[in-house]
């Protein structure tokens, strides 16, 4: 898919493609309401919009929201775009599908709470769970009965913690997809830190991407 991606906006990568593949497997039609969190370029939102579903996409970055708007025009899709902090712009609404590709890269102890500028798209606190935990605790409450949450993250950011939080929030959970890939530039630059933290073995330069699927059954 051709997408505009100016500097400072998270580019579609392996995690984007893995999440998009899971979206394509969901049963969506014109009656469906979809929320895409941390939309970036709008790539995943556009995949959902192709089904005819009504899609809302949210990002904290004004540049990302503008980029997603331009991409919706490029692909002739109608998507509601909102700038804001995760679920704040859609408070009180309910969705049949919520997708999220949040920041999940650990920054280690003493490195600050989260990234700034372009790093806001990937830095996620000392253990990589700064945004993941917030989504796990708050997104389930916005799902309709039978609604689905699809959340992509790295294995370095504690997948079992994601599964446990979503189960505690009342969702039936499973790992919907996995893919191993070589570190990109951001992860490679942090490899020595990850080794010190025990997140990877010495010399290891791969991560596993995981899509967690949660379903609200009642």
Describe the structure.
The protein has 218 residues and is an alpha/beta fold. It has one domain (14-216): Vaccinia Virus protein VP39 (Rossmann fold), CATH 3.40.50. It has seven helices and seven strands, in the order αβαβαββαβαβααβ. A seven-stranded mixed beta sheet has the order 3-2-1-4-5-7-6. Helix 1 runs parallel beside helix 2 (43-49). The longest helix has 13 residues, at 62-74. 44% of the residues are buried. The mean pLDDT is 93.
Provide a quick synopsis of the model:
With 218 residues, this protein is of the alpha/beta class. The chain has 7 helices and 7 strands, in the order H-E-H-E-H-E-E-H-E-H-E-H-H-E.
CATH topology: Rossmann fold
Percent range for helical residues?
Answer: 25-40%
The Cα radius of gyration reads 16 Å
Quick one: how many beta strands? 7
The total domain count is 1
Number of helices: 7
Any idea of the CATH class? Answer: Alpha Beta
